[in-house]
Amino acid sequence: MTLENKAYNNVQNRESSFELLRILCIFGIITMHIVSIIYSSVTGVNLIYGVFVNSLFNTCVSIFVLISGYFGVKLNIKKLIFLDIIVCARHGRQLGGESPLQAWQ
To answer: What is the DSSP letter of 2?
Structure first.
C-alpha cells in the first residue's frame, strides 16, 4: 500500500448534503443576529414576528454544533487552554480588574 492510499483511507469523506445544511445554518445564525438587532426596540405584532424568527433560526445553532461534532472536530487541549486564557484576560479588562496575563508576568 502506497503512502497516497494510506492518506486517502484515513480521510473521512464528507457528505455534501450535510455541508449544505451547515452552510444554511450559518446563514440562519447570521439572520438571527441581524433580526435581533433590528427588532430589539419594537412592540406589538413586530415583536411577535421578531421572536418567531429568532426562535426559528435559533435551532440553526444546535444543528451547526451537531454537524460539527458528527464530523469529529478534533479537540486540541493546548488550543482550548489558550482560548480560555484569552477569554479570561479579555473579561478581566472589561470588568476593570487585572487580567490574568498581567498577574502571571
So the answer is: -
Cα 25 to Cα 1, 40, 62, 89, 100, distances in angstroms: 40, 22, 9, 30, 35
Residue type, 32: M
One-letter identity of residue 63: I
Question: pLDDT tens-digit profile of 1-42?
Answer: 555 555 455 555 667 888 899 999 999 999 888 887 877 777
**Phi, psi for residue 62 in degrees, rounded to 5:** -65, -45
Give the 3-state secondary structure percentages of the chain, helix then strand then coil, rounded to 5. 80, 0, 20
pTM of the model: 0.54
Measured CA to CA, the distance from residue 35 to residue 57 in angstroms comes to 10
| Distances from the Cα of 26 to the Cα of 18, 20, 30, 33, 90, angstroms | 12, 10, 6, 11, 26
- Distance, CA of 48 to CA of 87 (rounded, Å): 34
* Count of beta carbons in the 10 Å neighbourhood of residue 101: 14
